[in-house]
Amino acid sequence: MADAGHGTGGFAPPVFDAAFRARLAELVAWRRDVRRFLPTPVDRDAISALLALAAQAPSVGNAQPWRFVMVDEPSRRAAVRTNFERCNAEALSDYAGERAQLYTRLKLEGLAEAPVHIAAFCDEGADTGHGLGRRTMPETLHYSVVTAIHTFWLAARAAGLGVGWISILDPGELTAALDVPAHWRFIGYLCVGYPCEEHLDPELVRHGWQDRLAPDSTILER
């Protein structure tokens, strides 16, 4: 007879007690979108370990479509920076008045300061997963990469590292600059390093761009 609490596989699941759950909630709350980094180098083995954790993220059909590119070459980093600067200038033109002034005061990237740059792609040509779960919602392949990014983000925060997700970029231009296969779809560009300052509130809340919504305002019952 199996011991109480054991699954059918014969292994007891880990016990996540109240203290762990409280720490997990604290970790989620401290997952900040970091834009200001110290120049302190980050050990590449530590990044590899975090990416290995990210690879434990859920994915549709177990397709595991994430592809992470470590961007180290100065010329490629410069191309990404140029890409951001042009897209950022175009984005500013969408705002006017006080909102435009506030936009110019926000720090929206840490490309110059972050010691580690990682570009996350979705391999749309991968045959892993054999199409399971994607017939009616093929976009779930992209969502799978997002779950891996979030897993990496939380793991990095637990390791004392900060992560900034840079989205003000032209995907096609970035894909070309990094010379990756044409069937890789760009998902996100991550700046990683040790934060030079810590805040519990997100920068966009702190500067009055957008407050947090009350959780119950986003939940409907049917």
From TrEMBL:
<dbReference type="InterPro" id="IPR000415">
    <property type="entry name" value="Nitroreductase-like"/>
</dbReference>
<dbReference type="InterPro" id="IPR012825">
    <property type="entry name" value="BluB"/>
</dbReference>
<dbReference type="InterPro" id="IPR029479">
    <property type="entry name" value="Nitroreductase"/>
</dbReference>
<dbReference type="GO" id="GO:0102919">
    <property type="term" value="F:5,6-dimethylbenzimidazole synthase activity"/>
</dbReference>
<dbReference type="Pfam" id="PF00881">
    <property type="entry name" value="Nitroreductase"/>
</dbReference>
<protein>
    <submittedName>
        <fullName>5,6-dimethylbenzimidazole synthase</fullName>
        <ecNumber>1.13.11.79</ecNumber>
    </submittedName>
</protein>
<dbReference type="InterPro" id="IPR050627">
    <property type="entry name" value="Nitroreductase/BluB"/>
</dbReference>
<keyword id="KW-0560">Oxidoreductase</keyword>
<feature type="domain" description="Nitroreductase">
    <location>
        <begin position="28"/>
        <end position="194"/>
    </location>
</feature>
